[in-house]
């Protein structure tokens, strides 16, 4: 929180209407003379300071710089004194929530982006991702990224383990032959490694991301916040991760069921040992088997699986937040549909719209690589899981494999739809304002409305996949068509070989 000293207030900011009328050229430095003086300032207000090109009007009080503040479009007629501020000045706002709010009311709002996504970030940090500090603080300003911190070290350990497994998997794949079935492990560990690195890059910019959202929330405070979005995010995060955990457990149970034939005596320890030997044979081909090393590998794979799922969750929540903001803007605009409004109203409305489009572009620059990786991963694994299910799971008669197949494919489709629909919602909502502009009265039609309508019609506001494509509803149909096409091709070229022979012999089991 920033504030002025008494001298700075009297000399640089406060202008008394009564003293200006009496012709006095010097402002009083007496604190008592500041009481109830009506003041105005020419400047642009954001959460920390005021600079040029905006307007703030207020009432000065002892110990308070501003007690009432209004955005430029809502300056009362009786506030006539205007003074220029040639340099940015720190600003503390004390308001009754009309117009510009206090800084604390914005960045500490329970439905702000920082508060809404807090649970997801803290859950990610539990599993080594997004190693930022400061989420126990009151707002995003406490968030920092430090290379020398236990969270970053935790992430580095996971990264080294992931890289080691990927190296062993790639080495065995190219040494013993590369098939579509054996490619899943290589693609999985490679994608989780890339996702981890991209999330690390995002962590270094995480304070900027939160700052961009907070700046937008401050400037568009008059539209309020998406009602209850923080609660919805919290519930959805828990449900999403529970579904991911169920998928992971079903995968392990189905694999354990197959390892019974490889165990020595059918005991739990023997089955677990057989599972580790066979599931991580890429690693134990090059190092001696150890149960403790196997347990570490199980933990590392769990972290890789979490990374794979969390990337989709984070992208979906970010897209959800931005589309909700566009929706609030559209709701406010639809309230004036058909009404006669002057050019200043449409200018301010267009500027508010620009705040949202600028935010979308800034956020896209942070997450576009992760978006491309996420959609590519989901497309690949949906095709592979469908092919495996058609060729193996239904023939094996193993109820656990069948359950895993159905759950895995269903959850993959849900994840893909969640990411694409929330991101596509940004593009859809960004075009809704055209309906209002098409119905304005003839008397309201002006240069500002023409400019706004042209911007809405020609400006493509959307998240992208590294600028290769924009996330729109049309992309969803394209992805669905691609899955069907590739599935037909894979089925035609697949030999139908299964990992587990029908006669149940132990050629599947790894020999040591």
TrEMBL record:
Cellular localisation: Cell membrane
Transmembrane segments: 153-174, 186-203, 283-302, 308-326, 402-424
Biased composition (Basic residues): 17-29
GO cellular component: plasma membrane
Superkingdom of origin: Eukaryota
Disordered as annotated region, ranges: 15-36
Keyword Transit peptide: no
Protein name, as recorded: Gustatory receptor
Annotated organism of origin: Menopon gallinae
């Amino acid at each position: 929180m920033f504030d002025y000293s008494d001298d700075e207030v009297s000399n640089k900011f406060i202008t008394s209407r009564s003293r200006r009328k009496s012709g006095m050229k010097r402002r009083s430095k007496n604190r008592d003379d500041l009481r109830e003086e009506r003041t105005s300032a020419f400047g642009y207000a954001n959460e920390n300071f005021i600079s040029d090109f905006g307007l703030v009007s207020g009432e000065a009080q002892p110990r308070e710089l501003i007690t009432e503040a209004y955005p430029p479009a809502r300056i009362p007629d009786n506030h006539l004194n205007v003074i220029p501020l040639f340099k940015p000045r720190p600003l503390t706002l004390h308001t009754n929530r009309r117009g510009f709010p206090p800084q604390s009311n914005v960045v500490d709002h329970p439905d702000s982006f920082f508060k809404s996504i807090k649970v997801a970030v803290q859950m990610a940090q539990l599993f080594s991702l997004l190693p930022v500090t400061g989420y126990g603080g009151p707002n995003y300003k406490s968030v920092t990224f430090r290379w020398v911190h236990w969270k970053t070290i935790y992430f580095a350990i996971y990264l080294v383990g992931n890289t080691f497994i990927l190296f062993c998997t790639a080495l065995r794949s190219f040494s013993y032959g590369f098939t579509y079935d054996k490619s899943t492990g290589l693609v999985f560990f490679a994608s989780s490694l890339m996702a981890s690195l991209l999330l690390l890059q995002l962590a270094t910019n995480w304070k900027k991301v939160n700052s961009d959202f907070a700046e937008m929330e401050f400037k568009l405070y008059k539209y309020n916040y998406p009602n209850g979005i923080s609660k919805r995010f919290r519930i959805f995060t828990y449900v999403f991760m529970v579904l991911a955990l169920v998928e992971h457990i079903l995968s392990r149970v189905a694999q354990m069921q197959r390892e019974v034939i490889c165990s020595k005596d059918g005991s739990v320890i023997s089955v677990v040992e057989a599972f580790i030997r066979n599931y991580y044979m890429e690693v134990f081909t090059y190092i001696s088997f150890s149960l403790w090393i196997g347990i570490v590998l199980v933990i590392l794979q769990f972290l890789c699986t979490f990374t794979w799922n969390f990337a989709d969750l984070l992208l979906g929540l970010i897209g959800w937040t931005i589309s909700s903001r566009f929706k609030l803007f559209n709701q406010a605009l639809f309230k004036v549909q058909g009404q006669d409004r002057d050019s200043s109203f449409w200018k301010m409305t267009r500027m508010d719209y620009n705040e949202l489009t600028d935010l979308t572009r800034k956020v896209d620059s942070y997450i576009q690589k992760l978006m491309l990786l996420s959609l590519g991963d989901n497309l690949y694994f949906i095709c592979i899981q469908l092919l495996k299910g058609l060729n193996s799971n239904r023939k094996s008669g193993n109820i656990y494999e069948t359950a895993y197949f159905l759950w895995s494919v269903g959850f993959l489709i849900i994840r893909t739809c969640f990411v694409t629909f929330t991101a596509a919602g940004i593009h859809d909502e960004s075009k809704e304002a055209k309906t209002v502009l098409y119905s304005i009265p003839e008397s309201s039609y002006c240069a500002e409305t023409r400019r706004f309508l042209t911007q809405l019609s020609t400006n493509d506001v959307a998240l992208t996949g590294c600028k290769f494509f924009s996330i729109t509803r049309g992309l969803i149909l394209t992805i669905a068509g691609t899955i069907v096409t590739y599935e037909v091709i894979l089925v035609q070229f697949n030999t139908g070989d299964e990992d587990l022979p029908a006669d149940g012999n132990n050629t599947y089991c790894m020999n040591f």
